[in-house]
Amino acid sequence: xxxxxxxxxxxxxxxxxxxxxxxxxxxxxxxxxxxxxxxxxxxxxxxxxxxxxxxxxxxxxxxxxxxxxxxxxxxxxxxxxxxxxxxxxxxxxxxxxxxxxxxxxxxxxxxxxxxxxxxxxxxxxxxxxxxxxxxxxxxxxxxxxxxxxxxxxxxxxxxxxxxxxxxxxxxxxxxxxxxxxxxxxxxxxxxxxxxxxxxxxxxxxxxxxxxxxxxxxxxxxxxxxxxxxxxxxxxxxxxxxxxxxxxxxxxxxxxxxxxxxxxxxxxxxxxxxxxxxxxxxxxxxxxxxxxxxxxxxxxxxxxxxxxxxxxxxxxxxxxxxxxxxxxxxxxxxxxxxxxxxxxxxxxxxxxxxxxxxxxxxxxxxxxxxxxxxxxxxxxxxxxxxxxxxxxxxxxxxxxxxxxxxxxxxxxxxxxxxxxxxxxxxxxxxxxxxxxxxxxxxxxxxxxxxxxxxxxxxxxxxxxxxxxxxxxxxxxxxxxxxxxxxxxxxxxxxxxxxxxxxxxxxxxxxxxxxxxxxxxxxxxxxxxxxxxxxxxxxxxxxxxxxxxxxxxxxxxxxxxxxxxxxxxxxxxxxxxxxxxxxxxxxxxxxxxxxxxxxxxxxxxxxxxxxxxxxxxxxxxxxxxxxxxxxxxxxxxxxxxxxxxxxxxxxxxxxxxxxxxxxxxxxxxxxxxxxxxxxxxxxxxxxxxxxxxxxxxxxxxxxxxxxxxxxxxxxxxxxxxxxxxxxxxxxxxxxxxxxxxxxxxxxxxxxxxxxxxxxxxxxxxxxxxxxxxxxxxxxxxxxxxxxxxxxxxxxxxxxxxxxxxxxxxxxxxxxxxxxxxxxxxxxxxxxxxxxxxxxxxxxxxxxxxxxxxxxxxxxxxxxxxxxxxxxxxxxxxxxxxxxxxxxxxxxxxxxxxxxxxxxxxxxxxxxxxxxxxxxxxxxxxxxxxxxxxxxxxxxxxxxxxxxxxxxxxxxxxxxxxxxxxxxxxxxxxxxxxxxxxxxxxxxxxxxxxxxxxxxxxxxxxxxxxxxxxxxxxxxxxxxxxxxxxxxxxxxxxxxxxxxxxxxxxxxxxxxxxxxxxxxxxxxxxxxxxxxxxxxxxxxxxxxxxxxxxxxxxxxxxxxx
Length: 1102
Prior knowledge:
Keywords: Protein transport, Transport. This protein is α+β, with helices and mostly antiparallel strands.
């Protein structure tokens, strides 16, 4: 690792052969002070937008060259730049706060004076703050049966926040709750797979708030209840009374096979005359249906959390579960699957009703809503689940308890995630030259869970427990409740997410300008397919979206078997081409001239981008020097760092990092029987990896746009973006007609989304828990930090955790993510995210508080991580066994149903078998598929955010032949259909999307009038090979375009659409995504449930 570079040292130069050059910019954690001064709130400057500028010349002039270039015209004909691609989307504006960068601070003793300032009056009415010290919580409830009741959430050490005085979010009015259909306490609910699904308070009505807090309390108005689905029973069995299950709760305990069901309370103890057990999250506060019994009264003086939509009731002490009857006895034949009604097995229940989610309620952590639901966060002390989610909302006290559960303890951190438009922006706090207040032992940052004592003179760190002196200029008296009197006025003391302005101590050099270098493939294949023209058009249109200001720098180069730089200096009358023919030992000519300020070179840049496709239109060079070109571009921006955006079309075949067609020797597909097939998913050699580590050292982030029609070895190429914090965009098979719009939108979102440079991230944990490993797109050079040359709002990092000591039952366990980064405006910031969760020693509490979305996202990422190093069959077995081990643990230690003919599923994880089956049938694990398709899937999963994890393997399917043209629909997106061919009719049209791609299946018997209105065709036989969605002048077409654009907005991705029909490969592709059907990739959903049940039975009896 390079040595520390002191402030003011010369920047690294581009001469790689100079042994005396200074090392790359690294950040020593022992160079930072924690001084404090005045508190100021500010916002970063808003992005200035300017419209695209036209070319200054009607005809591009000749470019003088430093060397001969075949095909370079002496007088280029006029080049007509294509207009804005169809369907261009307006992206969300950049939030007020910027993006992160750099390494974390060191161990420096505080230098501030401590104690009460001179002249400060004595604190008023001091007393110990109630509930501020963590208590070991026992179970006060009396068991209703032999099992002991679950423990409740302990009081948090966090401080309650005061009211937020602010204007109400636009369009949000008083909420109207829907009544519950079940009685008794409620628990977190498993999430739906895709779209915005409601799992919280009721839908909003429009109207402005007349006053009061920003987020209004729920009104008492009730809505008609939704009828519950019938209990899962045997197909063709005698009709039975419906169970006490609603869409928002869990089913009643189902009697063993042969026993008729009777209407009963969801609590077995209640049926015997006993009271329902207590709820970990407090009694519900939403109005109940009149037919239900009244909830227990709240604890006096406590704040009771509201009942979330979909929170299941608690059927028995230590139990919240779903029972699936008639799955066969041990050793029974598979034919027993015919007894299960496919319409009654667990499936996601989507909804579009928005909810307001408060992160803390009554000093207790509020379980997060489903990641795919539509919710608005009110930060009341804990961070928003958009920024950090834990796989379990209660932390196990011991490692043995975690191992027994079979679940994983991990965090998914997305520090720059996009907030909801109605959420208040993250506050930026400037402590001046002294910097933010920190613990002098563990270097944790000040947060709402640090407890102030001794009249405010000292504070206790919630991470390491150390008692520190409060800096004199930060002292404040405590109120009667034990909180600082200014707690609600200081964002760092009442918000779970906050940004600090970094001081000079957090910098080893001044923040560098935002640099964007574009590298374009001009080989014969790229020219002939239109990839070069599409790339140049997209770049020329996003120039106006780059950050304005004198610090924004740009550069352009092209490459085939040689590399061509361009001097864009304003002093030249026209751009000057500079050729680098040596692709084995590359260099950058006139380094200071190839990267220039955007404000000085805009005219030359636009002219150059218009001319490049014409200049190389007769190019017959088929080779690509990808590795050499990337290395040369790196040398051009090495001194400052920045973003390198590469457009690649063919397999790199010459120069540094050249590759061979490993897929060519009859290995187009990978099958599970090939023992060495997984090695094709590993990089071919270490050349590109070594280069990528160099790029990360000098803070260069690489994004690669692959526009190809053949194999390009993504497994090797993707090493560069994954190591530098970038990503790979894949367009296969590339079509200039249908993919130009997606290429433009992807590039535009890449440069305009919230992002940062030169970032360093560290996660700190409370005593007893430590970070085990980080997973994501980054470079790791130290055990505790991850280096991110670039990070943006779409990147997620998985942090696995492990115990190093026993935790106290009822105490709080805190996690704090600190991200040091530079915004696109050159401001150095620290994005701080803090999450505090209760600890528990009860296994049933772990299952009750499991977060299905986060559990499965970590499940998915670990599977993707294993695919390149293990045979596919082995990975599939491990995926199945992990699902079985979790359900076995619940069945063995928590469930009270003794019938062997029932599969018992924990309510929070009842969809885990469905998503596990979907994962096994996904692109990454199915038996067939192209190597590059599997490689891009692995690369995509590595940085995938939590809301997109489930839709990737369990897509959303919608019927679009019967869209309602009305504008007053509650939701633009129609109802989701189960992924089964039983729900697909040949008289319908269906859209299936997974967040990146969309397939539109057209049945053979569709009404020709509908086809004409939607696609301008009269028969499925007229389906075009290359498809672009058009908007015709009719209500149905407008509605379809609205639906597609809404999906694109939800996913922050420009959906790539393709038409499919039965009988050709496109139809087979569509039906391969119907994961509930039996296919060559795996069994049907019902068969998989039977398999899981029998495996559990075998393990229980052994």
